[in-house]
TrEMBL record, chains A, B:
<dbReference type="GO" id="GO:0003677">
    <property type="term" value="F:DNA binding"/>
</dbReference>
<dbReference type="Pfam" id="PF13411">
    <property type="entry name" value="MerR_1"/>
</dbReference>
<dbReference type="InterPro" id="IPR047057">
    <property type="entry name" value="MerR_fam"/>
</dbReference>
<feature type="domain" description="HTH merR-type">
    <location>
        <begin position="1"/>
        <end position="68"/>
    </location>
</feature>
<dbReference type="GO" id="GO:0003700">
    <property type="term" value="F:DNA-binding transcription factor activity"/>
</dbReference>
<protein>
    <submittedName>
        <fullName>DNA-binding transcriptional regulator, MerR family</fullName>
    </submittedName>
</protein>
<keyword id="KW-0238">DNA-binding</keyword>
<dbReference type="InterPro" id="IPR009061">
    <property type="entry name" value="DNA-bd_dom_put_sf"/>
</dbReference>
<dbReference type="InterPro" id="IPR000551">
    <property type="entry name" value="MerR-type_HTH_dom"/>
</dbReference>
Length: 154, 154
DNA sequence: CTTGACCCTGACGTCAATGTGAGGTTTTAG
DNA sequence: CTAAAACCTCACATTGACGTCAGGGTCAAG
């Protein structure tokens, strides 16, 4: 398969694929005329790479991780890296959850049944970590709103 | 309080605070000589701003959101924005979870009790979405490893 | 053989939240 | 009073994963 096909199937640009190759994340055969050729499996590999990029891993880190995907074995160094990146991701998820909760508090206040009731600041929307709000975990308030917004934005 | 104190308490640089002001996210009084002065509450406000930045919201979006923190009311536009950003964050968390699971699969394989058993690719580590692995949700494998890595990296 | 779609290699542009340094004023501690 | 520490305003540098344009080959179809 040529680069355009891979790009299409993996949902990325050809520029991205050449960049991955430049970074050592992806290899390709070449036709006599110099055009890149990939095996089918490249599609999944690109998707994995993209997943890591999306998760905020820099290319240098991905480069260190990929060999252990290929060999199925992890050196001690790679092992540490795997673990520390996992921790990083976990921390990032916590940060996102915190921001989401802040938004939820704002939505709650904006949705307050009696708008006259909260002139501004009885409990500021950004109060530091109100544990009473932390009992609920996943869905959050105003499901209908979020659902409709999903329709709008996804 | 002056800028250095706020920066210290909020855990950001003075440069960041001046940038926030430049972007309209933060206001300050000035002493006759021109030095910035902030109320105590600025610390929490900066922390909120940082939380949003960490969650990937761009300053322009934060700028649209903050008024509704201040007034406790959200215009329809702001409301849509709140909802769509909440969705964005939720999607980002899902992406992080997917990457974390990919790492977990790699860790599992690297930790495989019989390393000789998986020469490379019986089930590639990056197999697309193995639902059997999705039953477990939060903690993941190799707790001890992750715990020790936490000690190392946090 | 030619046209249009695809591919190639540079190489510069982008965007956003800061970092950093220059050159100068203000505040604070002694 | 003096020196250090903190502040001020420009304004250019950084980082990373691409976008985009230039200038030029390649490949299938008609």
């Amino acid at each position: 398969m040529r680069i355009g096909e891979i790009a299409h199937q993996a949902g990325v640009s050809t520029r991205a694929l050449r960049y991955y190759e430049e970074q050592g994340l992806l290899t390709s055969e070449r036709t006599p005329s110099g055009q890149r050729t990939y095996p089918e499996s490249a599609v999944e590999r690109v998707r994995l790479i993209q997943q890591f990029f999306t998760a905020g891993l820099p290319s240098r880190t991905i480069l260190q991780l990929l060999p252990c995907v290929d060999t199925g074995h992890a050196s001690p160094k790679a092992f540490e890296l795997l673990a520390s990146e996992r921790n990083r991701i976990t921390a990032a998820m916590a940060d996102l959850a915190a921001a989401r909760d802040a938004l939820d508090r704002m939505i709650d206040i904006a949705n307050h049944p009696t708008p006259e009731h909260c002139p501004a600041l009885r409990e500021p929307a950004w109060a530091p970590y109100n544990p009473a709000d932390a009992t609920r975990t996943a869905p959050g308030p105003t499901e209908a709103l979020v659902a409709s917004a999903t329709l709008i934005t996804m």
